[in-house]
User: Fold these one by one.
Assistant:
Number 1:
Amino acid sequence: MIRVMVCGAYGKMGREVLKAVYNDGDLDLVGAMDVNSGFADIGELIGKGKTGVIVGNDLETVIHSTKPQVMVDFTNPDAVMPNIRCAIANGVCPVVGTTGLSVSNIEEVKQLCKEKQVSALIAPNFAIGAVLMMKMAQDAAKYLPHVEIIELHHDQKLDAPSGTALRTAELITKTRGSFRQGHPEEVEKLAGARGSDYEGIRIHSVRLPGYVAHQEVIFGGLGQTLTIRHDSISRESFMPGVVFACKKVINLDGLICGLEHILN
């Protein structure tokens, strides 16, 4: 049994992670943390009755009292780095689904893992279908280099573009390189009308109630278009990937970025 704790336990993703870890026979849900904690029993959050495991509001205290091997973090961009630092400092392996981390953040985590000899996994998306979408998009870019990305999320998401969109653009760029798309004299009548720009790839972010997490990658070629789309209909779609990551992370070497690297 792998001992797991969850950060962001009161959030929508946090509650799904609690249920997924609790229901898996190879994982032991030993602790949870949320800064808004009312010290509820986790069983009350996931409809399982009293479990004796209480949600704390101080990460270091929870780690010391529950001694987890793995910390799953679905919090927010402001909280995630302090949580990762605390976990690694205490020898706990982070599995991070919180997006909004910068390049410098990633480098810091990599260095901390090296110094403390702790492994970690950071993934922009834990849905297996989303990982396949990114891989297919990277392959398609070999033949259809003109591409734009549209990502659609719920209106409470804090960062834009999404981590999945940025990771998709990064993978495509590794295949096709960087170049400017569209007419060279193109003019935006409203700033941002053409979306953000990642190495010539336009990324468009939609934020509306009713969505969970969705992305389409549209390729254009002579007389044709190709659209690769993934839809997460509910947050349950991320849970098989999260559970899989919890089981694998303790045997990794240092920091791994992207679920695709452990699926193989």
Number 2:
Amino acid sequence: MFLDLVDRHLGTIVANRICEKAIAYRTRSAGDRQRLPLHSRVQLNHQAVIKVIEEMEANLTEPLLLDELVGSAGLSRRQIERLFRRELACSPSRYYLDLRLERAHLLLVSSRLPVVEIAMACGFVSASHFSKAYRDAYGCAPHQSRLPVYQRKKMRSNRPEENSTRQIDQRLSNERMPNCH
């Protein structure tokens, strides 16, 4: 029911992203994928774009050059760039960077790997380049993204069970609901 409401008010892509975040059929290691199949996540009309994105997703640790990516699609670089603009409203390099940053964000909030290791695991040549790109995308430094997660875990372990429900109810009543009209 919730996903139906999200789909109607915010669109299929947002609903699919929520589904993607909620996948929990087993405990994943840091290198495991947590994504719905591409055709379910993004509604694309061109098979070449799907092939290029699949290549990108398969090569997050050691990013490929755009010329290497377009070879699998059988189209020229310019054609792929035009298709990305039309289908996704961004360039292939921007999309690739966003994929890598999304993976880095997931690692930051779900692991205790050092920021430098996360940067390398997501194909960044230096921690400073990663930090700048991450700050541009998420509005904070990488180490700041993991603070709320660990603070919440610490809070959960320090408070009695009977106060837990009351605090959650209080937080929910204080939070503003987004306007869905």
